[in-house]
Amino acid sequence: MSGSLPRPLPALDRDNAAYWTGGEKGELLICRCGDCGYYVHPPVRFCPECESRDVAPQPVSGRGSVYTFTINYKQWVPRLPERYVLALVALAEQEDVLLPCNVVNCDPDEVTFGMPVKVLFEQCEDLWVPLFEPAGR
Amino acid sequence: MRYGEKNCAITGVGISEVSRGSAKSSLELTVDAALDAIADAGLKRSDIDGIATWPGGDGNASGFSPVWIGQLQDALRLTLNWYSNGGESPGQYGAVFNAIGAINAGLARHVLIYRSMYEASARKLAFANSLVKEGERQRGGFAWYAPYHVHAAALQQSLYFNAYAHKSGIRPEQQAMIAINQRRNAGLNPHAIYRDPITLDDYMASPRIAGPLRIYDCDVPIDGSAAIIVSAIDAARDCRNPPIRIEAVGSSMRYRNSWTQLAEVDTQAQPKVAEMMWSRTDLKPKDVDIAELYDGFSFHTLNWLENFGFCERYGAKDFIEGGTRIALEGELPVNTGGGALSGGRLHAYGAVWEGCTQLWGRAGERQVKGDPRVCATSTAGGPLAGAMLLVRE
Question: Is the link from the previous residue into A108 a cis peptide, with omega within 30 of 0?
Answer without folding.
Answer: no
